[in-house]
């Protein structure tokens, strides 16, 4: 077997030569994905610790400043991401059972939810930019004079911005899956990329599950 | 590696829908609970609900429930490291004693002496105090209030409201009498921090210097004004006696350490 294994070979039960079988290859790939997600948790850890420090020492400011955020839009985005996780899970199931059309359809639905999420983010960000609710020295919002409120907004923009970046990266990966699935790359013997992308996408949902109450619902 | 062939778990549509339904209900619960004021419990409830949601996503959507245990172990290590990160950070931040280093020497909190007022009746301006206040102003206040007291220092540009412009008479929230400025200096105002840890000599010196920056000469304290802030104007030291205080430079250090905000 050659170094590079084509999709057709994989669908026929092939695998890279250094693995015992296709199953071993899949499990190794999956463990690798989980290790990547560990690095993602550690990456977000820095942000969550930053948030925690700000909150512990500026409790009253956080309470005042979080009212600048629109919790209804935050809740809408929570619902959108949970729905996108459902369509992603269904795409994985479809890939595993060889229903390619169903897989592609669910991947497109996931993309749509992702676009919806970013649209809501756009509404939120543009409103804040318009009002001058901006990080640090860029702040020029006259209706709130709570000391350090711009610091909360900095944390808000950094945390949600990096999260949104993850959504955008996920959209790119999902799009490549759509193309590959359309080409007939996946079937019951080979669906590794779909499942790995699913793990990543659910992780992005996971981060938002914490971001939503922490940023929008602090009290 | 064992010879046993892994069974890929395939999630049924009904299972996926059930998990989705549970997540939606829990999101609704989060939002509803946030509208009710439970005090500190609000945060605890929100985090518990978020963790239940996260667990559902991990166990079912991400398949950890059916997966090799090693993947669950791998993922959980990240939360162990997050916990260590939190413990070390807060272990440091919350246990920092009041130890200050000044001129290379460590000054523990207990060693900060009882300082007796050097100036007699410090609420009355003297050229000596104004000169002392000018020095303190140059090293501690210029950054926000600006070199001429116009409130245009670089450190104040981002503050809202802007730092006080000492050269104009209008808009002084607490008033311009010495006792009133002394109160502002002691208690802080908006972004202006409290300098209560600085000695009364330092605070009064700053008051007298700041008053020379604008047309404030006519605003004078009556004995009642002084009594309002706890000073007996008939006594040389104001009747307050010795007090615990540290030099204003240390007060600034303490401020930048940011124990405040609470």
Task: Please render the helix and strand layout as text.
The complex is a heterodimer of chains A (219) and B (262).
Chain A: H1 7-11, H2 22-57, H3 59-65, H4 71-96, H5 100-131, H6 149-182, H7 192-216
Helix pairs in contact in A: 2-6, 2-7, 3-6, 4-5, 4-7, 5-6, 6-7
Chain B: H1 13-35, H2 41-61, H3 69-93, E1 99-102, E2 105-108, E3 114-115, H4 127-140, H5 142-145, H6 178-187, H7 200-211, H8 223-228, E4 243-244, H9 248-256
Antiparallel strand pairs in B: 1-2, 3-4
Q: What is Rg of chain A? A: 21 Å
| Terminal Cα span of chain B | 56 Å
Question: H/E order of the elements of chain A?
Answer: HHHHHHH
- Multimeric state of these chains? heterodimer
Helix content of chain B: 40-55%
Can you tell me the CATH superfamily of the largest domain in chain B?
Cytochrome c-like domain
CATH fold group of chain A: Four Helix Bundle (Hemerythrin (Met), subunit A)
Q: Would you report the number of β strands of chain A?
A: 0
Structural class of chain B: mainly alpha
Q: What is the number of domains of chain B? A: 2
**Mean of residue pLDDT values of chain A:** 92
The low-confidence parts of chain B are 1-5, 258-262
| Straight-line distance between termini of chain A | 61 Å
Q: Which shape of chain B, going by the Cα principal axes?
A: elongated
Shape of chain A: elongated
């Amino acid at each position: 077997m050659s170094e590079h294994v084509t999709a057709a070979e994989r669908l026929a039960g092939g695998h890279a030569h250094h693995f015992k079988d296709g199953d071993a290859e899949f499990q190794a790939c999956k463990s690798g994905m989980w290790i990547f997600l560990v690095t993602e948790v550690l990456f977000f850890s820095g942000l969550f610790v930053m948030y925690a420090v700000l909150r512990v020492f500026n409790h009253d400011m956080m309470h005042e400043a979080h009212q600048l955020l629109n919790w209804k839009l935050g809740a809408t985005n929570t619902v959108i991401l949970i729905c996108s996780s459902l369509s992603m899970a269904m795409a994985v199931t479809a890939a595993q059972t060889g229903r390619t059309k169903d897989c592609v359809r669910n991947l497109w639905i996931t993309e749509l939810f992702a676009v919806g999420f970013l649209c809501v983010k756009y509404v939120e960000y543009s409103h804040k930019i318009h009002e001058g609710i901006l990080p640090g020295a860029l702040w020029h919002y006259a209706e709130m004079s709570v000391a350090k409120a711009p610091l909360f907004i900095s944390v808000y923009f950094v945390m949600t911005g990096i999260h949104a970046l993850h959504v955008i990266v996920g959209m790119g990966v999902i799009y490549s899956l759509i193309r590959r699935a359309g080409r007939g790359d996946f079937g019951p013997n080979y669906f590794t990329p779909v499942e790995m992308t699913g793990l990543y996408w659910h992780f992005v949902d996971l981060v938002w599950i914490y971001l939503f109450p922490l940023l929008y619902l602090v009290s | 590696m064992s010879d046993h062939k892994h069974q890929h778990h395939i999630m049924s549509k009904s299972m996926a829908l059930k998990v989705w339904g549970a997540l939606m209900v829990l999101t609704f619960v989060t939002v509803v609970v946030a509208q009710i004021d439970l005090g500190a419990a609000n945060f605890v409830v929100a985090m518990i609900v978020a963790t239940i949601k996260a667990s559902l996503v991990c166990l079912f959507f991400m398949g950890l429930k059916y997966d090799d245990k090693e993947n669950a172990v791998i993922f959980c290590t990240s939360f162990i490291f997050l916990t260590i990160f939190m413990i070390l950070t807060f272990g440091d931040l919350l246990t920092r004693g009041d130890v200050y280093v000044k001129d290379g020497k460590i000054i523990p909190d207990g060693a900060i002496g009882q300082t007796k007022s050097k100036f007699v009746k410090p609420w009355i301006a003297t050229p000596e105090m104004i000169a002392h206040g000018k020095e303190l102003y140059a090293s501690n206040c210029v950054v926000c209030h600006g070199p001429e007291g116009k409130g245009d220092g670089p450190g104040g540009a981002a503050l809202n409201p802007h730092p006080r412009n000492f050269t104009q008479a209008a808009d002084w929230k607490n008033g311009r009498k010495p006792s009133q400025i002394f109160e502002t200096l002691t208690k802080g105002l908006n972004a202006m921090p409290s300098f209560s840890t600085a000695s009364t000599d330092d605070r009064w010196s700053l008051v007298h210097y700041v008053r020379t920056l604008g047309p404030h000469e006519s605003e004078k304290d009556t004995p009642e004004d002084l009594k309002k802030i706890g000073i007996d104007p008939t006594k040389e030291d104001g009747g307050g006696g010795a007090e615990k205080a540290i030099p204003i430079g240390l007060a600034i250090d303490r401020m930048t350490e940011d124990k405040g905000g609470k």
